[in-house]
Specification:
The protein has about 120 residues and is α/β, with parallel strands linked by helices. It contains 5 helices and 5 strands, in the order E-H-E-H-E-H-E-H-E-H.
Length: about 120
């Protein structure tokens, strides 16, 4: 499975990446909108783990590009915010399949990636 993690916090992104790689996923880590879009242009990705609040760029722009470029690629959003806790995110992003708190355990993230990345 090919996973793209888009996370501004390099330490958190690294922890998630290593955990997914140990479970057999090929993982690319991007820290910004431009890095993520470059990956989506050049690689086939099965699932994206995308922080809703990025320091450099827009998660919505990445999700929109993914929706156009690879419409079957699912997106798991992570966030520390409660802004979209009403579920409205799923009305705006057709590829969205889950929204989880950024402080979820690597095991929980891996379970979600394995579930949605293979369907």
């Amino acid at each position: 499975m090919r996973v793209l993690i888009v996370e501004s916090n390099p330490d958190l992104g690294w922890v998630w990446r290593r955990h997914l790689e140990r479970r057999g996923s090929a993982v690319t880590l991007a820290h910004s909108q431009s890095e993520a879009v470059d990956v989506l242009r050049n690689e086939e990705i099965d699932i994206i783990v995308l922080n809703l609040i990025l320091e450099d760029g827009s998660a919505f722009a990445i999700a929109d590009f993914a929706s156009y470029r690879c419409p079957d690629t699912k997106i798991i959003f992570t966030t520390n915010s409660s802004f979209f806790s009403d579920g409205s995110l799923f009305q705006h992003i057709p590829n969205a399949c889950a929204m989880m708190p950024s402080q979820m355990t690597p095991d929980d993230l891996t379970a979600l990636v394995e579930h949605y990345g293979t369907h």
